[in-house]
Design brief:
Length: about 210
């Protein structure tokens, strides 16, 4: 077993958990970063995006025009499907290439919409969900990004409810009141992480 799918709602603490795993030697594959990279100038998805959506989908610098694409997707649900039909296979191919290059050891796929997209479950050996209450998600994202509460709530509303995400998990870390040290201990105590537990690690939260 070497592939973990790491997911959670916005601001739940996915990146923080990923950083703990990376510090302990895991390889991180960040699907959001891949999605951004393949839609940069010269990115692997750009020819297909221009072919499917026309030149107006491409900004002057050759990257995907995100504002324009948001408008198109908002106006036409099929446009979203067409965009995903381009992005998902390209992201999948890049993930596989990165995983093949990673060598032995734990590979952590950071997939914010793992549960929503459905296709990820078969690609990873275990699903690790980082969970926090919506109030905590709001507080963290507002503090980190300066977004309004309304903007964060809108993103939360687009994501699956916490209960659905938790039900899809092999393990849940409830990152609500944990200090960073306690969070690291919980991560290291996960049975499938296979890393040396830190002193004092272990918690009933893991099995939730
Ligand atoms: P996004 O979905 O927006 O990418 P995320 O799930 O990756 O978010 P992080 O970026 O890891 O979440 O965490 C969001 C913010 O909350 C960060 O500023 C992070 O430092 C902070 N944070 C995460 N866990 C804790 C914790 N246990 N205690 C205090 N702050 C935390």
């Amino acid at each position: 077993m070497r592939r973990i799918g790491l997911t959670g709602g916005i601001g739940s603490g996915k990146s923080t958990v990923a950083a703990i795993l990376v510090a302990d030697g895991a390889t991180l594959i960040d699907t959001d970063a891949i999605a951004r990279a393949i839609t940069q100038p010269g990115g692997a998805a750009m020819p297909a995006i221009e072919a499917a959506f026309g030149p107006s989908a491409v900004a002057a610098d050759g990257s995907m025009d995100r504002a324009r694409m948001r408008e198109m997707v908002f106006a036409d649900p099929q446009a979203k499907q067409r965009l995903e039909a381009i992005l998902h296979p390209a992201i999948g191919a890049e993930c596989e290439a990165m995983a093949a290059a990673a060598g032995p050891g734990l590979i952590v796929f950071d997939v914010p919409l793992l549960v929503e997209s459905g296709r990820w479950r078969g690609l990873v050996d275990r699903v690790l969900v980082v969970d926090a209450t919506e109030e905590t998600q709001l507080r963290r994202v507002v503090a980190r990004s300066g977004w309004t509460r309304e903007a964060v709530l809108a993103v939360i509303a687009q994501q699956v409810p916490r209960s659905v995400r938790r039900a899809a998990a092999d393990a849940v870390i409830f990152n609500e009141t944990l200090s960073f040290d306690e969070l690291a201990q919980e991560v290291r105590a996960l049975p499938f992480v296979g890393l040396e537990p830190a002193a004092g690690a272990g918690s009933s939260e893991n099995a939730r």
